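Hey, weird one. I pasted the Mitochondrial cytochrome c oxidase assembly factor sequence into the form twice and got a warning about non-standard characters only the second time. First submission, copied straight from the form history:
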Amino acid sequence: MPWDFYIPIQLRSYLPHCEPPCDSDCANSNEISTMGGLNLEVAKFGMYVMFPIGIMYYFGTNLDSRFSVPEFWPKAEHSNKVPFDREEISAELERLRARRLYNRERRLAAEAKQAQESQSQSQQDNQS
């Protein structure tokens, strides 16, 4: 069979020996069909190479005007400034410490208030 060289030798004994499928047109004709030839292969190669390059060129040029959202990024005055000097770092640490202590005081006051309310609620339930 002409297509046996595609099948490994170990598997040939397991496969039934039959002819490859064929259309009714090719069974009656002795004509050998050819593919598109060199021009088709050159055209396909050009398409395979130029399509990704074209996509990259389309999406890679003029990005600022095509895909930008106005005022998406914050301005420099609205963004955080990273401290580099020793004084700026210590001032930032003091600010963070004060904020943490303020939040802790608020949390403790809320917990105390909640505990007092639950205690008064339990006392009212015991009296009734």
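That's the output from the first submission. The warning seems to come from a hidden character in my clipboard, not from the data itself. The first helix runs from residue 9 to 12.
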